Amino acid sequence: MKFDDIPGWFYPIDQAGFAWTLEFQNRTAPPGDLLELGSFKGKSAILMGQKLRPGERFTVCDLFEDLAAWDGSHQTERDFFGTKSLTRKAFEDNYRAFHAELPQIVQGPTGTICAHVAPASCRFVHIDASHVYDNVREDTASARVLLQENGVVVFDDFRKPETLGTAAAVWEAILNEGLKPVFATDAKLYATWGEVAPLQQEIIRCAKASDWARTGAPVMIRDMPLVRLLRKGR
Ligand SMILES: C[S@@+](CC[C@H](N)C(=O)[O-])C[C@H]1O[C@@H](n2cnc3c(N)ncnc32)[C@H](O)[C@@H]1O
Questions:
Q1: Is 33 in the pocket of ligand 1 (CB under 6 A)?
Q2: pLDDT, tens digit (0-9, with 9 covering 90-100), for 114-158
Q3: Is 142 in the pocket of ligand 1 (CB under 6 A)?
Q4: What is the rounded CA–CA span in Å between residue 128 and residue 24?
């Protein structure tokens, strides 16, 4: 099985954003665990698992086939995933095609994640489960509790017209709750409650060193510089 054959919404620019962020942490950050909220068929999880260092734990949380029956789910999300043959087995089969060991799998609503992952234990959290405002708010609050100092949180679909709940939750955390944006692609926003400059400089360096990506001039959000990461020619 080839990585590109796995269905999902994890595009090359974010594959680079994840790889460059995790590799930078691998060189500069103390040990820390990885967490994904919303894994679908495993595309982003497989890449995250490739960057795990010995002794670190990777946890994924997804309802998989239980999404349809979960009373907190939104009709639009039930309709959307109801057509996608989403099962835990599909995730596990795909993951096993690339890794000898599965991550810790929490099959349940992301709102339960703090019962399974220790506070301040994570260096990287990917929030890509429900895109409903209340759920993203809850996932953001969990990420804040679970991230270690200078840990990075990534939000999927922070700017699509179909996912305004995510947009509202992300900007609320940035404008009112001390979350600082680091860089953004068309699909995802990368942020931290810790230091911004070291990772931002690294992303600018990695894009420059590549022959296919670039960064835009920083956009100021109040006093916070936010860098765009995009393909060359755009
Ligand atoms: C957009 S997909 C994740 C895509 C995946 N990260 C990738 O890159 O391929 C969203 C996933 O979140 C799960 N999900 C949605 N709401 C959830 C919730 N409240 N708790 C747990 N999982 C949820 C769905 O079952 C689905 O698998």
A1: no
A2: 999 999 999 999 999 999 999 999 999 999 999 999 999 999 999
A3: no
A4: 22
